[in-house]
Amino acid sequence: MKSTITAVSAAVGMLLSSVTFAEQISMFDYDEATSAYEDAYLDAQFDLRDGNQDQASYNAVVSANYDRVFSSADRNTRIDFVGDTNISQGPNKNDERKENYQALASLTNDMYFSPKVNDFFWYGKAEVGAQTDMEDPFTKLTVGLGYGRVVNATPMAKAIRVVQSLQERGLLRGNVSRETYQKVAQVIAKEPVYRSRYGSADYAEYWLEDIGKTLGGQLSARGAIKSYDVLINERISTRKYGWLVRAGVGAVLTNYDGSDSKPALEVGAEYHYPINNQTQFSNEAILTAVLDDGDNGFNANNTMSLTYELRDNIDWENVWLLTYAASDKSEDLMTNSLRSTFRYYVSNSISLSVTGGLSKTEDNIDYDGTTNTNRNDDVDTTFHFGLTYRLK
Fold first, then answer.
1. Nearest to 353 by CA among 235, 223, 219
2. Which range is the signal sequence, renumbered to this chain (predicted)?
3. pLDDT, tens only, 154-170
4. The whole model's pTM is what?
């Protein structure tokens, strides 16, 4: 009886020790300066209504998002694209079909002066935009200075998921040290290198073999299959930590209204914090002032997001978007949008979503039903079912 109690106590002690140790592993344990990630999505939402109205009304929105970042100790390069198309028709007899689109692409390059000493950098940024009824595309160039660093910790998130899955199935025994987690994450981060060296058809066997070696050669055939399933078939959202601020000067070379050669000032900041292994908080803000005698313009955007992984294939995404625009020749315009989405990943590439949203626009123009048709005095509510295809 005494030996049984001793054995049980030892087992419980090992379990508690394992849990305590596991809780100490987080995204912040990943400090590799060189990494890369790529996110690309194609999202579609459609709303159709009929009955008790003159004609069937519909609203279709197709949006595309692309974000690719290359990071090293002395340089960060980011390619970003956001675009959407809206096709709609109102419920009234005379309502016509409307089509609108907008798109903005940017390339930002941060060059660190002395990465081993501090995180000061200079940056260059190029932007190109297009929208419905424009006279010219939007083009802008900016150069400036900044401080701070954002680390892509997604490889560590994947390493934690792999180790947990293996331990849950008894395919990996004993504690895993922080150093081992770091080595596994480093191998995971080199997936593009393996793909380039061995080809897309064969790279996974070499990649998983090296992951197994970092785990002390404990990866069995079942363990390799499960690791492949986690890394390839499961959706693990991008994880980042750190902050940076930047300020620059530039010029709007061409603008949507046909004007050109306007000097611009830009101030931006971003902050990312993985609250735990399932929750990511991010905030990105940018303020741009366009200087033109008698027609100065001011634009500010702030995007705050909180993503929580309810399960391996279910994410709860919450976003608050604040936009503010002001100019000498028009009323100030401020829009607040809140969006909450439950996203179910059918596969690594396809997800179904349910989204509820609130939006409020302040433009200092009241709807009176006669002299204007501006109807944004109240809070807009939306509810959508969506389908998202993950390109990358």
1. 235
2. 1-22
3. 999 999 999 999 998 88
4. 0.81
